[in-house]
Design goal:
By secondary structure, the protein is an alpha/beta fold. It has a single domain, classed as Rossmann fold (3-Layer(aba) Sandwich), CATH 3.40.50. Helix content is 39%, strand content 14%. The protein has a 5-stranded parallel beta sheet, with helices on both faces. The longest helix is centred in the C-terminal third of the chain and has 17 residues. Bound molecules: flavin mononucleotide.
């Protein structure tokens, strides 16, 4: 008999000044029927309330590769949401660089066929760099669902109030529907 489990969403969080708002996404994801686990980039760890996030998800935050022999701390991902997504991680992901656990998971997702949605959080000065639109175009061509965040003003301290944490859930709703349907 196949064991039924709830759809599991990996939430990848990058290092921006708004990263500590990820709890809003976790709450919304749970209310839609996802279980969640957070993968933080090493730089993002310093921006997060790790204890609060782990209490919310019920899983340790992952940030580094485990050593051989340590069991996999999270169930396999049914989908991945990348939020507070930085210029750095977006460009490295598109270029196929895998030097953080988060990037390794994202780079592998393409080959594994795991649906991924990303909501960038990049200022307009960084967004003007030619690598950025090229990276988004490459990710789009890989089937990554890209949110509609408008770059914020540089040196403004960001645009926390306009960042849409839950848009990734809108983008992944058809995936969730398919997963729920196939479980019934
Ligand atoms: C306070 C602060 C705010 C930042 N905000 C942003 C941001 O909004 N967008 C961005 O792309 N990078 C931002 N950065 C820069 C990233 O943290 C930096 O590029 C880092 O290397 C990203 O690492 P990651 O992509 O592995 O998370 C910020 C850095 C600091 C210290």
């Amino acid at each position: 008999m196949t064991e039924h489990r709830d759809p599991f969403l990996y939430i990848v969080v990058c290092a921006t000044g708004i990263a500590d708002g990820v709890g809003e996404l976790i709450t919304a994801a749970h209310s839609e029927g996802w279980k969640t686990g957070v993968i933080a980039t090493p730089s993002a760890l310093g921006f997060l309330d790790q204890e609060a996030i782990e209490a919310q998800t019920g899983h340790p935050i992952r940030s580094a590769w485990r050593t051989p022999g340590i069991p996999q701390p999270l169930p396999p991902a049914d989908a991945i949401a990348v939020v507070s997504a930085t210029f750095n991680t977006i460009n490295k992901w598109a270029a196929g660089i895998s030097d953080t656990l988060a990037l390794g998971i994202l780079c592998e997702a393409y080959g594994l066929g795991i649906p991924v949605a990303v909501q960038p959080y990049v200022n307009s000065a960084l967004a003007a760099h030619p690598a950025y639109p090229e990276s988004l175009a490459r990710l789009r061509s890989m089937g990554v669902l890209i949110g509609d965040h408008m770059p914020h003003r540089p040196k403004s301290g960001g645009a926390r109030e306009t960042y849409n944490w839950t848009h990734v859930l809108d983008l992944l709703r058809p995936t969730l529907g398919d997963l729920q349907e196939s479980a019934t």
